[in-house]
């Protein structure tokens, strides 16, 4: 096989990551035409929800069992809230910071939180202890943010 499973997953992650600044710009454009970032974010979520519903119907996904959903911890329900904060914030910040600075800051924040999630093995992530190399990687990332912002 030419491509391993991990290669395909990595390519998918790169594609999803590449869509993030595009989404921010698209939502920012919508915000300029819809009374602000909150309404643009709401519209974005409605379109996303409808899209996922159509995919679920077309692929004949089973409706989740209520008993299983009730077993989820309370914090498992906060993903939509986090998504709303991200979408609204990115729609607001895109024209103010520019794509490169905004995304560099997002990635720095993501990696910082990722270190903690891995260290504590929280939210289904396998446990990987923080070490000097991981911390150095995040510090270098913050240096990259400075280089991008103050070039």
UniProtKB/TrEMBL annotation:
GO terms for cellular component: plasma membrane. Keywords: Membrane, Transmembrane, Transmembrane helix. The chain crosses the membrane at residues 38-60, 72-93, 99-120, 132-150. The keyword rRNA processing does not apply. InterPro entries: YdcZ. The keyword Transmembrane helix applies. It comes from the Bacteria. This is DMT family transporter. It comes from Oceanospirillum sediminis.
């Amino acid at each position: 096989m030419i491509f391993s499973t991990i290669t395909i997953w990595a390519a998918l992650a790169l594609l999803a990551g590449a869509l993030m600044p595009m989404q921010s710009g698209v939502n920012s454009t919508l915000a300029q035409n819809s009374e602000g970032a909150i309404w643009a974010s709401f519209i974005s979520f409605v379109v996303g929800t409808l899209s996922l519903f159509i995919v679920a119907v077309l692929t004949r996904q089973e409706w989740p069992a209520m008993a299983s959903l009730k077993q989820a911890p309370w914090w498992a329900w906060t993903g939509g809230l986090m998504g709303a904060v991200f979408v609204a914030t990115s729609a607001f910040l895109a024209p103010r910071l520019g794509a490169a600075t905004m995304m560099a800051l997002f990635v720095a924040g993501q990696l910082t939180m990722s270190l903690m999630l891995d260290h504590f093995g929280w939210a289904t992530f396998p446990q990987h202890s923080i070490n000097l190399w991981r911390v150095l990687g995040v510090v270098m990332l913050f240096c990259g943010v400075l280089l991008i912002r103050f070039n």
